[in-house]
Amino acid sequence: MGDSLKQKTLSGLLWTFFETFAIQGFGFIQGIVLARLLMPSDYGLIAMTGVFFAVSYALVDTGFTSALIRKKERTDIDYSTVYVTNVVLSFVLCLVLCLCAPFIAEFYNEPQLFPIVCTNAGLLFVGSFIAVQGVRLTIQLDFKTKSKITVLSTVSTGIVSIIMAYMGFGVWSLILPNFFSVLLRGILYYIYQQWFPGFRFSWNIYKEFFSYGSRLMLSSLLNAIYNNVYSLVIGKYYSASSLGYYSKGGGYANLPTSILSGVLYKVTFPVLSKIQDDDARLEYAYRKMIRVSAYVVFPVMILLCVLARPLVLVLITEKWENCIIYIQILCFAAMWQPVHSLNHNLLYVKGRSELVLRLEVAKKIVGVIILCVTIPMGLIAMCYGQIVASLLFLVINTFYTGKLINVGFYRQIKDLFPVILYTSFMGVSVWLISSLFVSSLLQILVGVMLGVSLYLLVSKVFKSQEYLLLFNMLKQNIFFRRRMRRNSGFMGDVS
Predict the structure, then answer these.
(1) How far is CA 91 from the centre of its chain?
(2) Which of 10, 21, 82, 154 could be bridged to 64 by S-S, CB 3.0 to 4.6 A?
(3) 100: Cβ–Cβ under 8 A, 6 or more apart, which residues?
(4) How far is CA 411 from the centre of its chain?
(5) pTM
(6) Which residues, at least 6 apart from 286, have a Cβ–Cβ distance to it below 8 Å?
(7) Are 146 and 19 in contact (CB under 8 A)?
């Protein structure tokens, strides 16, 4: 059981990383092309509606997918009940959003938002028809199939979006291709699984899942509102272009963390759920995941901060120069996101969703206070406030992990301290040396090569546990794949 779970974990991490890296990598390239074709105001219009749809998606899920993943024995009626719940709620919310669309457009004084809101509301409803199919693959730990479907649909949709932007569709090139994505994923899910959840519904199962999922839903709602409240405030008091710069800067700053956080959540939650009753194994795996996530993310974020200016000028031109400062500041807030995600995952695995809700309420109160204090000071001050909020969130998040498995704030910072030192040394060195070059392209090339080389060299010299762990994982995976190929060849010869 232990070896099987370990192999599934490693395979899941690799396939999910491939999925996330491929999606985000292509999304990065797609974003560069679109940023050259579209205007900052186009991105600002999309960001203005973000809070409304983030809330809607949290309400549609109601925490049921997490409850479904966590449940040890699932039946067809479990899947069907979640499916029916998602479809019905999404239809109701679709109608509500369409009715509210004129008021949203009036709130921002942007008439274009009326059709944008209504169209995205339709996408919310259509997307609910394929949500459970994807969850089933996660439960089966079939990350390979899920990765293939996600990558194929994302790349295809991105190509359609680029074509539409080139043809002059403007902001609609960021919206309409999503319908094509839903259709393609639905077809691929059925081809690979030959399975449909059905339309049966059980009130008993609904109550069972709601008792667990409702608190997760409230937590997700708080997250959805808080994560978009900055866009709400900026969109109300500043122009669509200003919000576009902020949105683009935040998007680049959150790109590396979203890759790893997505991998960690998709793989660690179902895997850790299988050892939820073994605190010793859970603590060991949890601390290892925190160290490895920081070891990968921290240097990437610092490199992005140091090289933000040449990257923006080379990739998306001077048109987006105003977003550079936002990237540089928000990198320090976003770099802690994988650690936050892992702290939450532990509480989900332990079935303590009520603790997640308590933490979210406390964090959002702190975050809103910081936002209110910084709003009169301007956009830059609001960004610095997010760094303070992220560090305070770490203190709050680690309170219950310290009580459940004795891995609290002090222990996590102690585990992360070597990585912080390696990263700081690398960041200062890259900043000093890259600034000697005038060419933006040379700054990027020299900065990246120097940063990676220094980081790995320092890790090796000081025998970093994370460096050795990743090196050994890579070596074990190569050995495992070679052994599987040899076994497959042997079985073929025997047959």
Answers:
(1) 25
(2) 82
(3) 52, 117
(4) 25
(5) 0.74
(6) 272, 342, 346, 401, 405, 407
(7) yes
For the chain, the three-class secondary structure string (H helix, E strand, C coil) is: CHHHHHHHHHHHHHHHHHHHHHHHHHHHHHHHHHHHHCCHHHHHHHHHCHHHHHHHHHHHHCCHHHHHHHCCCCCHHHHHHHHHHHHHHHHHHHHHHHHHHHHHHHHHCCCCHHHHHHHHHHHHHHHCCCHHHHHHHHHCCCHHHHHHHHHHHHHHHHHHHHHHHHCCCHHHHHCCHHHHHHHHHHHHHHHHHCCCCCCCCCHHHHHHHHHHHHHHHHHHHHHHHHHHHHHHHHHHHCCHHHHHHHHHHHHHHHHHHHHHHHHHHHHHHHHHHCCCCCHHHHHHHHHHHHHHHHHHHHHHHHHHHHCHHHHHHHHCCHHHHHHHHHHHHHHHHHCCHHHHHHHHHHHHHCCCHHHHHHHHHHHHHHHHHHHHHHHHHCHHHHHHHHHHHHHHHHHHHHHHHHHHHCCCHHHHHHHHHHHHHHHHHHHHHHHHHHCCCCCHHHHHHHHHHHHHHHHHHHHHHCCCHHHHHHHHHHHHHHHHHHHHHHHHHHHHHHC
End-to-end CA distance of the chain: 28
Query: What pLDDT digit, counting tens, does each position of 291-315 carry?
Result: 888 888 899 999 999 999 999 999 9
By percentage, how much of the chain surpasses pLDDT 90? 33
Q: Spell out the domain ranges in the chain.
A: 1-237, 238-490
Q: pLDDT digit string (tens) for 160-200?
A: 999 999 999 999 999 999 999 999 988 988 888 878 887 88
Q: How many CB atoms lie within 10 A of CB 236?
A: 12
